[in-house]
Amino acid sequence: MAPRQPLTRDRVLDAALALAGTDGLAGLSMRKLAKTLGVEAMALYNHVANKTDILNGIADRVFSEIDRADPGLRWDQRARAIAVGMYRALRRHPVVPMAIATSQANLTTLRALQPLDDLTGAFYEAGLDDDGVRQAILAVYSLVFGSLWLTTAGFARDADQAITPEHVDPYLHRLDPDKLPHSSRLLPALAAGGAESDFMRGLDVLIAGLAVLATPRRPSA
């Protein structure tokens, strides 16, 4: 028989992320997590303080998956790369944006906070003032979290499941095209897009708008 793997914080967080991915945030408990790891629940407290500590840990872990953008890129290219990296990392683990959006988790480590700092730096390089950078950051985060919310049914559905004609069909039969002509026209098109391609298009529009407002800093003499 192979020796049992020693329990570590990394093992606990790995198991917690997998368990939350299948059972959701509500299904993640110390008891279930201990059972998954084959230990007593009390053994977990040698590595994590409580469920909040676990959620903070898995959020930090997922944000740490985001690759840093090449500092040699233009500000708009860096901003796009960071936003895309954030979207893809969170789409792989939709319980994490749910935990953050519901204030059950916060980012606590330098590595996890680095994408925000890099994004902030890109917007300052674009020439935006403090208020402009604040608004730009909020716009990017709104796009990332909003896109995930709409395409994963509140971060709970399989992230790879797209809107299909079956999702739209019930609404087609309910809407009166004479009373809601524009919505009736749009509904069939909702099943034609792709989650990531729609996000990319929205991000392109957002960054193009920010570029209009930006005044790139001139290098000092």
TrEMBL record:
InterPro entries, per database record: Homeodomain-like_sf, HTH-type_TetR-like_transc_reg, HTH_TetR, Repressor_TetR_C, Tet_transcr_reg_TetR, Tet_transcr_reg_TetR-rel_C_sf
Molecular function per GO: DNA-binding transcription factor activity; transcription cis-regulatory region binding
GO biological process: negative regulation of DNA-templated transcription; response to antibiotic
Pfam families named in the record: TetR_C_1, TetR_N
Domain spans labelled HTH tetR-type: 6-66
Source organism, top-level taxon: Bacteria
Key words of the record: DNA-binding, Repressor, Transcription, Transcription regulation
Name of the molecule in the record: TetR family transcriptional regulator
Organism, scientific name: Actinocrispum wychmicini
Taxonomic placement: Bacteria, Bacillati, Actinomycetota, Actinomycetes, Pseudonocardiales
